[in-house]
């Protein structure tokens, strides 16, 4: 009965297609590199498992049966699909021809990736990234949950389930309106920040908490009533004189080509930075490739963004 038919093995399907091509068991066995009795046994087993006769055998030769004709095209598709599967698996084994799900914070992605991804694509054309933005805490949770293959983040805490490679240090710049009393200096005494109202992003951003720690250290006030939803919003709030702010160096490098309305400087003898890492699960089968990717990213960042950030040694 057909309902009790057993699926043939991949080798049996290959043997069937080869015999159908040669219509001669001896020639087909030679092409397959097996003995003729082995080939005959396997074809007989395939016919028995399917409950079908695939070949008409006679003293004058071998012909495909009607059932054999009906199954031949499907059998060839199975072999082609298996070949494609094997080729894809070989390509994936070195990581160069894969799409990875990359998570990155919105305060970093738009200002870093345009400098990095084109060079990665030039070096590894088959490598692709599906990029999604989220706050660092959400990125770490998503990485552990399998929502991301890897994340690029200023992740500060450690987790035994996550491996990471440091990429670079990004400075935080001190920004004021151009008509602010502190404007006009390249370096400002940190003591002058005491009592200033410092604008920052909403507290769901890791950046918010870093600025909060800086303000606590300097005696400045975080303006909780005026939190920005993006770096662009924060920038406009500073321009309007609502307060001063610390802003990521890559944002300054990428966006402030004509900063007439703003003054950008640093705190004297007090460099403020945030470190970014590339991280992945320690069980990821691509972890060896991710370490290679980390090194590739560092080289590109050093070449493209020298002066804006400091690559981790």
TrEMBL record:
GO terms for molecular function: DNA binding; DNA-binding transcription factor activity. GO terms for cellular component: protein-DNA complex. Pfam families: HTH_1, LysR_substrate. It comes from the Bacteria. InterPro entries: LysR_HTH_N, LysR_subst-bd, WH-like_DNA-bd_sf, WH_DNA-bd_sf. Residues 8-65 form the HTH lysR-type domain. The keyword Nucleus does not apply. Keywords: Activator, DNA-binding, Transcription, Transcription regulation. Coiled coil: none annotated. Belongs to the LysR transcriptional regulatory family. This is LysR family transcriptional regulator.
């Amino acid at each position: 009965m057909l309902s009790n038919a057993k699926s043939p093995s991949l080798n049996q399907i290959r043997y069937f297609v080869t015999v159908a091509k040669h219509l001669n068991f001896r020639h087909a066995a030679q092409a397959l590199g097996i003995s003729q009795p082995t080939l005959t046994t396997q074809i007989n087993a395939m016919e028995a498992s399917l409950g079908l006769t695939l070949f008409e055998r006679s003293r004058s030769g071998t012909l495909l049966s009607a059932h054999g004709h009906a199954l031949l095209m499907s059998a060839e598709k199975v072999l082609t699909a298996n070949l494609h599967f094997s080729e894809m698996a070989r390509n994936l084994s070195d990581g160069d021809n894969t799409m990875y799900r990359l998570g990155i914070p919105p305060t970093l992605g738009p200002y870093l990736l345009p400098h990095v991804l084109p060079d990665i694509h030039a070096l590894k054309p088959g490598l692709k990234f599906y990029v999604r933005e989220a706050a660092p805490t959400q990125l770490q949770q998503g990485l552990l949950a399998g929502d991301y293959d890897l994340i690029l983040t200023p992740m500060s805490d450690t987790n035994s389930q996550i491996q990471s490679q440091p990429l670079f240090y990004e400075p935080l710049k001190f920004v004021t309106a151009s008509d602010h009393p502190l404007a006009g200096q390249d370096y400002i005494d940190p003591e002058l920040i005491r009592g200033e109202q410092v604008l920052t992003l909403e507290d769901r951003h890791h950046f918010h908490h870093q600025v909060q720690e800086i303000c606590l250290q300097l005696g400045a006030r975080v303006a909780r009533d005026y939190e920005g939803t993006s770096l662009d919003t924060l920038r406009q709030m500073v321009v309007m004189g609502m307060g001063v702010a610390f802003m990521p160096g890559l944002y300054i490098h990428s966006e402030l080509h004509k900063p007439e309305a703003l003054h950008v400087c640093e705190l004297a003898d007090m460099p403020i930075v945030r470190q970014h890492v590339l991280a992945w699960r320690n069980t990821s089968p691509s972890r060896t490739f991710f370490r290679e990717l980390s090194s590739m990213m560092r080289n590109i960042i050093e070449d493209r963004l020298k002066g804006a950030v400091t690559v981790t040694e």
